[in-house]
Amino acid sequence: MSSSDIFIGETIGTAVLILLGAGVVAAVILKRSKALNAGWLAITFGWGFAVLTGAYISAPLSGAHLNPAVTVGIAITSGEWGDVPVYFAGQMLGAMIGATLAWLAYYGQFHAHLTDPEIVAKEDEEGLVDKSVSPTAGPVLGVFSTGPEIRNVAQNLATEIIGTAVLVLAILTLGLTKGLGVSGTGVLIVALVVVGIGLSLGGPTGYAINPARDLGPRIVHALLPLPNKGGSDWSYAWIPVAGPLIGGALAGGLYELAFA
Questions:
Q1: What is the CA radius of gyration of the chain?
Q2: 67: which residues sit within 8 A by CB, 6+ positions away?
Q3: Are 90 and 18 contacting, i.e. CB atoms less than 8 angstroms apart?
Q4: The pLDDT of residue 228
Q5: Residue 73 · residue 255 · CB < 8 Å
């Protein structure tokens, strides 16, 4: 694979991943959406299908990493680090593009949700406006990025490390089953693993398990002209970056010890 193929594949694939992933969250939490209050199952399966779609699109060009933690895990097991910066660049750019497209798709819902006085007052009354993040923080940051239910640095970091290690180890061991990658079934299995992680380990932090998935859209949230959007919670932002990278590295090391 050439550097240009890797960059283009990762950009397009990650953009589709974030468009569909952020899109399902927007569908579930934004007022005036037909999927309002569809729940956690809708979100976890929506993210799984987002991974499935983005990976199938990008696999022929870049191998469909779509996640810096996956790239790190693969580099540890292969010893090939030369293309890692290209993967990272495509993933970050794609994540930002996908988040912007999700905002455009739900433009009217964002506007109604954040500017309708009755909606804003009700969110505040129900405690959905996190005053610890910003005195005017709206509940829409969750469309773009993750956040913990209980703010505990050690627990939040551990949750992201554990979830990502499961994901990356599952991806690395797929290659041990003959013909799985060639058949294309491996992409489906990875998508189902993402669903499983969301259902089992997503409760504490929202399971970023992907630095680009969290950081790219968080930057877009900070830049977009969303009225009454509140802060982007930068004090937490390092955890869904560091945790997945550590988890990916640990999974790569474990694979080398146990399977190589």
A1: 18
A2: 91, 167, 209, 210, 211, 212, 213, 244, 248
A3: no
A4: 82
A5: yes
In terms of Cβ atoms closer than 10 Å to its own Cβ (0-12, 13-18, 19+), residue 33 is middle
- Residues 88-138: pLDDT tens digits? 999 999 999 999 999 999 999 998 888 876 665 665 555 544 433 333 334
Q: What gap in Å lies between CA 129 and CA 2, rounded to an integer?
A: 46
Picking from 219, 232, 49, the residue whose alpha carbon sits closest to that of residue 147 is 232
- Phi, psi at residue 194, to the nearest 5°? -60, -40
Query: Do 181 and 174 meet the contact criterion of CB atoms below 8 Å apart?
Result: yes
202 three-class SS: coil
Q: CB 104: neighbour CB atoms within 10 A? A: 11
